[in-house]
Specification:
Layout: H1 25-43, H2 45-70, H3 75-110, H4 112-124, H5 130-138, H6 141-150, H7 152-178, H8 180-188, H9 196-234, H10 240-250, H11 256-269, H12 274-304, H13 308-343, H14 355-374, H15 380-403
Length: about 425
């Protein structure tokens, strides 16, 4: 039998299937635009940082300006008073502290051999730390100083660049505050009108978060500097101003800053004897515990509206994921995410809709309808001001409703009782 005419096909398992992945033109355009946006963001990172710093300054000083406006002062005069006060405070701080810090830093460098010798003798008394004592004796401050001199030009150029960024941020913040209505109106032109009230609520929330975080950081750092100054002064340790300033600045860095400040303070206290050094070490450790478990949750909890457990977990997660920068930005990012969930009315999977959520949605619709009625035919600047006013009123109503205690729950009816009794 001839098999030429038969249709021979390979078995089903021997067939090869070709998988083709095709992207639609829209997907390709979105991908290209995203890659270009990320590249542009990386290239313009200094500009982004200046903008973020300027917005942080605006969020920090805006409550003071509003307080002066409520007392009857014009807005521009209030801005001038606030920025002039900050400039005077900065000049006084530099004038009163920098000369003392330079003098005391020089004294610390001169006393470095004595501090090194006493620390090595103390470490040598302990059997386990004898190798560490040898390393301390081998350390030469002159090598560190020589390395610092060799990199002086590079450090000077970096310092000039940082100073230029700081001045740019200050002047940009001043411009944003003076020309607030025009800047805000331009931003609102990019957003649909139905979202203007919600955008205003988010802007008010961001201002509260940023300003509260910076003010909280200033409070915590000042408390650390004051504690170190009082402790060293009471123990008779010289150069207390320089060490206190270093501890306050280092306290900005989570975890690492406290370790650096503790090492510097304990090493300086070693000149007064082992008893004073151990006292300073114990009291510094106690204050670190107080700051981490009491002061930071209280200060940031009220400013950022975060519970202490969330504050501790946010700092820990930020430090693990992104190091020092992540720990610094963890609290404002956590507060921002929580604020966005609340303001955008995001329904989480495990959350049950409460009566307050229904009331909030009804209030949103009323606010949007009122805004559309009042802002009809108005320029962008006036419409933005109306949206901010309505958003502030809505937030005050929600906060007032949240502050009121819930009504008492009536006792359950006794179904087993005789209805005639």
């Amino acid at each position: 039998m001839s098999t030429r005419g038969t249709d021979e096909r390979p078995p089903e398992d021997d067939r090869r299937r070709a998988i083709r992945i095709e992207f639609s033109p829209r997907t390709l355009i979105v991908l290209i635009v995203t890659i270009f946006g990320l590249w542009l963001l990386i290239r313009a990172m200094p500009v982004v940082l200046v903008l973020v710093a300027a917005l942080s300054i605006v969020g920090t000083v805006s409550p003071s300006v509003r307080w002066l406006e409520a007392r009857g002062l014009p807005r521009n005069l209030g801005i001038a008073i606030v920025f002039a006060g900050l400039m005077v405070a900065a000049v006084l701080f530099i004038t009163l502290t920098i000369p003392a810090v330079i003098e005391q830093t020089t004294n610390l460098l001169d006393e470095a051999p004595l501090l090194r010798a006493r620390l090595a003798d103390w470490l040598e008394d302990l059997q386990l730390s004898i190798p560490l004592a040898d390393r301390v004796r081998a350390l030469r401050v002159s090598d560190v100083a020589r390395l610092g001199v060799s990199n002086a030009l590079e450090l000077a150029s970096d310092a000039v660049a940082v100073l230029a960024y700081i001045l740019s941020s200050v002047f940009l913040a001043l411009y944003i505050m003076l020309d607030r209505d025009r800047v805000r109106g331009g931003l609102f032109l990019l957003v649909p009108m139905s979202h203007h009230v919600r955008l205003s609520r988010i802007m008010l929330g961001l201002e509260t978060i940023v300003g509260g975080y910076i003010r909280g950081q200033v409070i915590v750092s000042c408390c650390m500097a004051l504690f170190v100054f009082l402790l060293l002064t009471a123990c008779g340790v010289p150069n207390a101003v320089a060490l206190a300033l270093f501890a306050g600045i280092a306290d900005v860095l989570p975890y690492i800053g406290s370790i650096l400040s503790m090492i510097a303070v304990v090493a300086a206290a070693a000149t007064q004897g082992i008893e004073v050094m151990m006292l300073v070490l114990v009291l510094t450790l106690a204050y670190e515990q107080f700051e981490g478990h009491v002061l930071v949750p209280q200060v940031y909890g009220r400013a950022l509206r975060l519970p202490p457990s969330v504050i501790f977990f946010s700092i820990l997660a930020g430090a693990v994921l992104s190091g020092i920068l992540g720990a610094l930005l963890s609290l404002p990012l956590a507060a921002t995410l929580l604020m966005l969930v609340q303001e955008l009315r995001v329904e989480l999977p495990g959350k049950q809709e409460m009566l307050s959520d229904v009331k909030a949605k009804i209030l949103d619709k009323r606010s949007e309808a009122e805004y559309e009625r009042r802002a009809e035919g108005k320029p962008a600047e006036q419409a933005a001001a109306i949206a901010v006013e309505i958003a502030a009123e809505q937030q005050s109503k929600e906060s007032g409703a949240a502050a009121k205690p819930p009504p008492p729950t009536p006792p359950p009816a006794d179904t087993d009782a005789d209805p005639k009794s």
